[in-house]
Design brief:
Oligomer: single chain
Largest sheet: 2 strands, antiparallel
Strand content: under 5%
Shape: globular
CATH topology of the largest domain: Farnesyl Diphosphate Synthase
Helix content: over 70%
CATH architecture of the largest domain: Orthogonal Bundle
CATH superfamily of the largest domain: Farnesyl Diphosphate Synthase
Number of domains: 2
Amino acid sequence: MSANSSRTAAALALIADDMREVDLVIAQRLASGVPLVGTVSQYIISAGGKRLRPAILLLMCGALGYRDAQRFNMAAVVEFIHTATLLHDDVVDESTLRRGRATANEAFGNPASVLVGDFLYSRAFQMMVDAKDMRIMQILADATNVIAEGEVMQLVNMHDASLDEAAYLRVIRSKTAKLFEASARLAAILSHSSPEIEQACADYGQALGTAFQVIDDVLDYDGDAAEMGKNLGDDLREGKATLPLIAAMQRGTPEQCALIRNAIENGETERLDEIIAIVKSTGALDVTRQAAAVEAQRAVAATQHFQSNPYTEGLLQLAAQLLERRS
């Protein structure tokens, strides 16, 4: 295990017992009288993954000294919302591989994936009501709405090779970072923290979520397909102009730019090896990693507002390790 992986493991070990409680809540709330609902839900949730959103909520609760059981319910809620977005994403993107195995839409078909995603969204909202806190409902309802807007923005931007960095960041701050932000903010609401602390939590979550997605986009051109459990070049096949491609077009020759532009506009991966070589030779990956580093540093700065304790240290470690992520 690398030093980086050890830091991540140490951060997550702090909440290992908490995460087991969250798993119990998830198992209980997945119960349905319709067998296919449980089968598809269990299929995607049992696939594992980093569980970063509930982990951030639990670590933030620890940093703020909140230990009540409601944190387990809210962690399960954000995992349900995230899982619903995955089910719908894979249908929209026509993905076939996630976390090293067939996506739910590949295994069960598009109709089952869409409808079970709807079930998970509605189950999450039932659980929010159980919390009997309008602020919690507001944060999660707003986040879910913004995520949907981000998905639509990304759909509109498909095959648009003129997308710039600002537009790219707008999409990922909505589509990915918003649930990270909400997860962190929930800890402040649960612990009745001050508005200043709540804002620091939100800043941490948004910055971490943005850095996470930027690095994810790097790995589509510089990752190990076996480690990532998905196909390299998936973003290009879907016509997504992510930051590595945007930076490569800004820095490459007219011929290199034309090749990338054509691939984005047509969703072509036949010349993927050439495009990966261009992305690397132009320094586009360095530009993209630097953009992630700026966000990770913003997350680190936000932790200065929290108590000094092992959980705050865990939040720091999560931000630091993102920049070394390889899968």
